[in-house]
Every structure is written in C-alpha cells, then in structure tokens.
Amino acid sequence: MPTVGVKRDLLFKALGKTYSDEEFDELCFEFGLELDEITSEKEIISREQGNFKASSASDVILYKIDVPANRYDLLCLEGLARGLQVFKNKLDAPRYRRVSPVSGDRQRLIITKETAAVRPHAVAAVLRNITFTQERYDSFIELQEKLHQNICRKRSLVAIGTHDLDTISGPFTFTAKRPGDISFRPLNQTKEYTATQLMSLYKTDSHLKHYLPIIEDKPVYPIIYDSNGVVLSMPPIINGDHSKISLQTKNVFIECTATDLTKAKIVLDIMVTMFSEYCLQPFTVEEAEVVCPDGRTIIYPELAYRKEKLSAEFINRKVGINESAESIAQLLTRMCLLSQTTGDELEVEIPPTRPDVIHACDIMEDAAVAYGFNNITRTIPRTYTVANQLPLNKLTELLRQDLAAAGFTEALNFALCSQEDIADKLGKRISETGAVHISNPKTADFQVARTTLLPGLLKTIAANRKMPLPLKLFEISDVVLKDQNKDVGARNSRRFSAVYYNKTPGFEVIHGLLDRTMQLLEVKAVHGGGYHIQAADDSTFFPGRCAEIFVCGKSVGRLGVLHPDVISHFELTIPCSALEMDIEPFLGHTAETFLTHDVPMQEGVQHQFVKCVASQQTLLSHPRSTKTLFGDMSTQAGLKALDDFLADRSYIEGFEASQADAAVFDAIPSPPPQTFCHLRRWYNHIKSFQLERTRLPSAKAQCVLPEAPPASTNDTSEDEIDLFGSDDDEESVEAARVREQRLLEYAAKKSKKSPLIAKSSILLDVKPWDDETDMAKLEECVRSVSMDGLLWGQSKLVPVGYGIRKLQIGCVVEDDKVGTDLLEEAITAFEEYVQSVDVAAFNKV
What residues contact residue 485 under an 8 Å CB cut-off, 6+ apart? Predict the structure, then answer.
C-alpha cells in the first residue's frame, strides 16, 4: 500500500478541526485508511542517516498514512482532506467541470507518427489562474511522484510533465527524434546537452537513473516542442528548464505521454481534479486539444461522470446488514459517490476521481466502509466446512520430523540460483537442465529457478565447513521445471535431498537414509511392487559410485558419491555423498486416507505403491446405548449439554479426533438439528473420518455409558434370593459415571499443557569499526538488547587482523518470538560501536 506523508498541522487546518493522535487514528480506520506512523523529518533522517545529518532538519510532525493502492485521489493532502470532510458530512463532494478558454482558442498538442515506436499516446489540460503557496507547490510535485511510482509504473506507462504556460506558446508538437538531433537545457542545469549526453549525465543520478532503461535502447527518443522550437520535455526522463513552474506560476500546462492511453486519462484527471480547487474558478479545468497522427481531434481532460445501478438488497446481502435504500444512499454519498434511490434501486454516480470503482462490488465495499466494519453484526456462518492439510505438505512435515530424528539437520535455501550452480558446477550444460530463466535478473546469484536442491546444500556446507564433522544436511522443498502442458509453461516439483560430508565418502550413510525413508513411506525393498537401486552414470557423481532409484519400475531419483570436480567447484575439500529424489509419486490416489495419521515406523505394514482403495469402510453401526457423560443423546437436553460443551472445543478429548469422538458420534441416533450449531459443526467434522475411524487414537476415558440391563419379569424363587449380597451393584453405574467424568476432566486439563517451544542456538559475529573500539562497551551494548524469548550466553574476542578483534557471542532464542533479522537490527542500532553483525552458526535446539 502506498504511504502518504502529510504535515499534521496543515492537515488539521484543511479539515477545520484539531484531533488528538488517537482520534485521528480512529477517523482513518473509519474511512478505511491506517495511520502507520507519527514522526518528523528530523526523526526520519536521524534514523536513516544519523543524528549529525538530522541536526538541521524540521521538527514538524508528519503523519504517515497507508492508503489503498487504487485510491489515487488520496495520494495528496488535498484529496485526503477533501475525502475526510465529505465523509464527516462537513462538505459536499465538488462537481468538476471542463471549461473552454476565455479567448476561445484551445491549447493544441499535435502527435506525430514518429512517436509510435516509443510512446504513442498523449493527453493534455490547463489549470488557469492557479495560486501556489510553498505547501501547495510541494504537494503538487509530490503527487506527480506518487503517481509515477504507482499507476504510472515508474514512468514506464505514463510520464507527467508540468509547465509554466506563460513561458511557452502553442501549438505544441509531440514527436520523436534521434538522440543526436535533440539538444536542450534540462531542468536545473546551466547548459545545453544532447540526449546522448543526458543519458551519460544521469547514469549517476540516484533519482533519474532508474528511468533511463525505458528509452535508452530505442532508435528515437520522444520530445515535445512549442511553436518556437523550445523543448518542454523529453519524456519520460526530464523536463526542460525553460518552462519549469514556480511559486509565481499562474497558468499550468499539463501533458501526459504514455504507452497506455487509459492510464494517461486517469493520471490527467487526478492531477487536475486535486489542484483545480486553487484556481480562480474552483474545480474548473481548461480543456486542451490533442491531434492524433491519423487526424482525429480529441478534447481532454474527459472528467467523465458515469452512473451505475444496483439494488439495496445486493449490498445488504453482501455486507451482512439490513439498511433501507435511503440509508445506503447516504452512506455512499459520504464516500463521494452521489446516490439517489428509486424504490429499492440505487443510482450511483461515479466521479472522475474514483477510477477504482469498476464493479458493483466496489460500490458495496464503500458502503461497508461508510457503515463501519465494527458495526456489522457478527453471525455464525450457515455453511460448515472441514479443513484438511494439503497431502503433499503433510507428507513433507512427517518426513521432516523423522529425517531430523535420523540425525540430519534441515536447511532452507533460496529457490533462485545462478546458472553456474545448476550447470557448470555440477558438470552439466545449462540446456540439459530445463531451467526457467529470469528475464531481467538483478544479480548473477539469482538468474534461474533451481532444478535441483543439491547446490543449495553444498553451498550451505561450504559456508559452515569449519563446523565439527560429519556434516549431515537435508532439505525438502520445491524445484521448478519446464512443462509445456502447464498454463505457465512450468511446474513445481517437491524434492527431498540429503548430503553427508566427512573424511570418508559415507555412501552407506546415504543409502541407509534412503532405506529409512522408504520404510517411512511403507515401500518394500523389492523389484516390481517396491523399490530398488541400480547402477547409473551421471556427471555429477563419481564414476561407478552412482545409483538410480526405481519405485515400481519408475525412476524417482539418484544417490551416490559426488565427483571430485563438483566438490572442488563448491570450495569443499573432502568427500561428500548425496541423495536426491522426487517425493510426489509417493502420494498416489490414497493420499487423503494414508496421510491423516502418523506414518508407521514398523516394517510389518503391507504397502502397494500408488494403489487405489478397493472398497470404502462403512460407518460402524450405532451402539445400542445413547447415554453419554453429557446425558441421553436421544433427548433434547442431552444434545443441548453436548452443544454447550463443544462451544469452545473442537473435539471431545484434546486437540485431535479420537475414538472418544467416534463413540459419542455413534451414540447420536440421528443428525442433530440446525439449532445446535456447535454440535452440528462437530458432527459433520467427525462424519468425515468414516474411512479412517479404526486408526484414530484411543479414547482416554469412557464417554458412552452402557445400557442398564433390562429388569427381569419372571418371579424369583426364594432360593434365588441373595441374602448376603451388598447394594454396591446398584450403585456401580453411578460410580462408573463419576469416575469416568473425573478421568475426562483430568485428560482435558492435561491436554492444556503448553506444547514444546521450538528454540535455536545462534552464534553471532559482531564486528567493530576499528582497533580503537571499546570492546567491553560493545559487549555491554549487545547484552543490553533484551527481548522476550532471548537468552544471551558465553562470549569471546576473536582476532580478525591488524589488531582488530571481533566479538563472538552465543544466544538461545525462541523461534516464534525472535528472528536473526530482528537481532541484527537491534545490535546494529549501536552504530557508534558496531560495524556489522553476521550469523556464524545456527542450530536447532
């Protein structure tokens, strides 16, 4: 979202009211905006460049406000203040008008056919008799820059030029010439340059250098002249100095050149509507004439108003409110969408300042904003759905846990890499890899999407080769492969890769990891229906030390000892074994069934690779008993008690489905009515487990009570009377119910214990500026960093060279609370002592 910085006092003056920070924050929220930060120019410069540079900066309070990306009318103080005043009913939305010049002769912009090769479109308008102050002038320039970065896509789609009309004379000509034929004095320069010289001049300009590639390679450059041959601008790079505007400018000629005509019209409308209020006749814009290469003449700006019709019922249904058409019309009018009613129908007028309204849903959204999101009554959804983890992700998570248990450390690497990483370093040609290339890579390290996980793991080892041996790493992540059958010509493939780095190759370790992985996946080591390996040739691996992995006759990956050349290419010095395989084929058609429980560890489970379920399991027949710990499920009272119990719970016991849920489910003779919403939600969820009920965890307590045995109708003889029996039998059912209730409460209490907290051990290298830095003070500053979930450990000073020592300090962090980026940012804040912070080691605890 774009962020607009406005001076607080100027904004309050425009609004005609002074707000506290909390009140203005609330007003922004009501209007659909967010007050992101309250700061000042001095504070910003101090934070970015240091206190010394900020000494002369202004202390004026600035509001940084986040606005929606498509609300171009809120990108300046004028539009923001106008919108808030209309929203608070302090001002009627203005009516923007296009007027003819008093003299009767419109300003004319003629487009020649030569522009077709670079920027074929242009629009223009005039702000007549405008009055600038310093604040208005600054806002005018800032709005151009905001539009350039937003809808103009960094001037690639539209470039805005503003000129003092009194210093130039029409008609104006928009044409294109060879760079050597263009010569003029650019903005804020003292001499003339050719276009070729300007390109060289601005290559070092921090602001303009980003726009040079737009036309740099074109045979001709766009240029705008007036009738006397004076250059107005060379879009999209720079304006001419002759026609620059100032505080004394009274008449502004605005031209927008573009590759997208629709965007150009929107930009022109926004520019003139925002600042036409400062004209002698407020909210009027003088029209200009644009002559196209084909001879057509078009009048700009369009300032088009259009009307849309929709029903109040549509808005009420979509937002979840119940308002009359008149009330909704008032809400929309507060959002600058003038509305009138005809029965239940609404006629909404869309002004030229709201190009974001392109559908009835956009109007509905504005009605919801004006109504207030906090005022919409919360309701329970009428449709219940059962969420389920994506099978591929569930398989990935299960494998990660068990591979870590096997002694391997997980690594996460970038999805992009260099061509050299996946080709030359692995002994392959780039054409063989089928890699997806980045069209405009910003760095040589990120040129293609990776086709294998192996380079990332080897680079991780290279960065940590000083760690104790052996190094055992694995990664389960996506690679990108070309696929002409896909809409985008490529697809993701989930891969598993592991490496073993030690003084000996350790092929048996990698082979053992493969066997363990197949055991977890329930694939037998047999030909045909299981898996096997056979010798293969691959330039990445040492000759005779490479094997291909086959599952059910299909190749899924390779393992072996890496070739010495590959090892040296990654700056490693000792042998390394590696494994990489595709895990998607192991999902098959039964993924939903097999992945809803933990992968079994034992060997004895029979598994057929990629087999279909022959027949579905059927629900167990309902038990005879409908009596549970919550009451009789055949009565409304029992169902109500269970519904209340499930109001803040998902399951009968703990945090996952179990046999307790299945037992209570079977005790309910028929689907519960809609009035018991929580019970209905639970019932539909447990019903979805019908194919895997037998694999649900055991119940911790008995939730369904047995039926009392029927009373005998036969007369008992005197011999059958137990004169010495006790009355404990009569109380056994009640005692069992109390005991089971207590067990259930204990299990629920035990399930609320805090889960294990993921922690990491981090070793940081903190480097000082020079050998004169007080290292004791530096360490004191580092240890002063205090965060929830951070525990500092031991430290030592390590020589770097030339008398300079770095601080090496360890810490343990809770992964969910503290990240390395957060630590580095906090430590580097001590800029007087700290030059940089690097992560020397990172291990899971």
Answer: none
Rounded to an integer, what distance in angstroms lies between the CA atom of residue 172 and that of residue 400?
Answer: 68
Of 434, 554, 438, which Cα lies nearest the Cα of 483? 434
Helix, strand, or coil (residue 809): strand
pLDDT of the residue at 717: 40
247: tokens are: 């505080």
For residue 447, which of 422, 429, 475, 483 has the smallest C-alpha distance?
Answer: 422
Tell me how far apart the terminal alpha carbons of the chain are, to the nearest angstrom. 38
Angle between the N-to-C axes of helices 391-405 and 507-520, in degrees from 0 to 180, rounded to the nearest 10:
140
Provide the whole-model pTM.
0.56
Top-level class of domain 391-523+561-586? alpha beta
Task: Report how far residue 689's alpha carbon sits from residue 540's, in angstroms, rounded to the nearest whole number.
Answer: 46
Domain residue ranges in the chain:
3-88, 97-300, 306-373, 391-523+561-586, 636-688, 759-844
- Is the backbone peptide bond immediately before 236 cis, with ω within 30 degrees of 0? yes
- Please report which helix (H) or strand (E) contains residue 684, including its range: helix 677-687
CATH classification (class only), 306-373: alpha beta
∠ CA 797-800-804 to the nearest 5 degrees?
Answer: 75
E-assigned strand segments in 179-275? 183-184, 193-194, 221-225, 231-234, 238-239, 252-258
Max CA pair span of the chain = 133
- CA 253 – CA 265 distance, rounded (Å): 15
SS3 sequence of 297-366: EEEECCCCCEEEEEEHHHHHHHHCCCCCHHHHHHHHHHCCCCEEEECCEEEEEECCCCCCCCCHHHHHHH
What SS3 class is residue 695?
helix
- Strand-pairing partners, residue 299, are 289
Show the DSSP H helices in 537-676 as ranges.
564-569, 591-594, 636-645, 659-667
- In eight-state DSSP terms, residue 415 is S
Q: Which CATH number fits domain 759-844: 3.30.70.60, 3.30.420.40, 3.40.50.150, 1.20.58.340?
A: 3.30.70.60
Burial (CB < 10 A; 0-12, 13-18, 19+), residue 625, is middle
As a whole number of angstroms, the distance between CA 270 and CA 72 comes to 7
Is the pLDDT score of 623 beyond 70?
no
Q: 158, 151 in Cβ contact below 8 A?
A: yes
Same fold, 3-88 and 391-523+561-586: no
- What lies within 8 Å, CB to CB, of 789 at 6+ separation is 813, 814, 816, 817, 818
Residue 229 zone, left/alpha/beta (φ > 0; ψ -120 to 50; rest): left
Q: Where are the alpha helices (DSSP H) in 709-774?
A: 728-751
660: its two tokens = 């307790």
Helix or strand run (H / E) with residue 780: helix 775-783
Torsion sign (Cα): 610, 615, 621, 622: positive
Q: Is residue 176 left, alpha or beta, with left meaning phi > 0 and alpha meaning psi from -120 to 50?
A: beta
Q: CB of 631 within 8 A of CB of 641? A: yes
pLDDT at residue 724 is higher than 60: no
Structure tokens at 463: 């960065």
Count CB neighbours of 181 within 10 A: 12
Could you read off the pLDDT of 510-562 as tens digits, one per residue? 999 999 999 988 888 888 778 999 999 999 999 989 999 999 888 999 999 99
- Distance (Å, whole) CA 845 – CA 835: 29
The dotted CATH code for 3-88 is 3.30.56.10
Domain 97-300: which topology? Answer: Phenylalanyl-tRNA Synthetase; Chain B, domain 3 (3.50.40)
Closest CA to 495 of 415, 581, 554: 581
Q: Is residue 705 within 8 Å of 736, Cβ to Cβ? A: yes
Q: What is the pLDDT of residues 272-297, one digit of tens each?
A: 999 999 999 999 999 999 999 999 99
